[in-house]
Amino acid sequence: MTDAVDLVIEQWRKERPELADGLRSVEVLGRMQRMQLVYDQHYKRISDEFGVNVGEFDVLSTLRRSGAPYTLSAGAFAKAAMVSPGAITNRLDRLEDKGLVERIRDRADRRSVRIRLTGRGKALIDEAMVAHLRDYDEILSVLTPEECEQIASGLRKIFEARGDTTLT
């Protein structure tokens, strides 16, 4: 079985045989790059179906997985979401306009803000998460559980070696 990455590698081996050892990285990273297209298509389907983009989905899922009452301080949210404050503000503005989250000012300290998932936001992310996982399962259905674990383990090693522990 061959794919487009195999063709690229074969062409380089013919043209520059001395690069053969270095081309092993293309076998993995080239396919990861192509996998990004699959990932993008997945999130386009989620966006079309549920009306939230990938960043908004991340906000909703961060709040939902935080547990009841699905509320985080702005600081805790920023830490959990691992994105810039500007990106969070833009996402929150859009989600607030859609009625999916709300900002709650602390009565004791008006500078302090909490972000809460609304009932409508909770219902949407609960439904979207089922579709999200169904798509992920379909994408990975050609792999055995052992193959999935090998890939996950290998990628985890790469991220740990690079000191990358972010969620997004």
UniProtKB/TrEMBL annotation:
Pfam family for this entry, one: MarR
Keywords recorded for this protein, A-Z: DNA-binding, Transcription, Transcription regulation
InterPro entries the UniProt entry points to: HTH_MarR-typ, MarR/SlyA-like, Tscrpt_reg_MarR-type_CS, WH-like_DNA-bd_sf, WH_DNA-bd_sf
GO BP terms, alphabetized: response to stress
Protein name, entry field: MarR family transcriptional regulator
GO molecular function annotations of the record: DNA binding; DNA-binding transcription factor activity
Domain HTH marR-type: 25-160
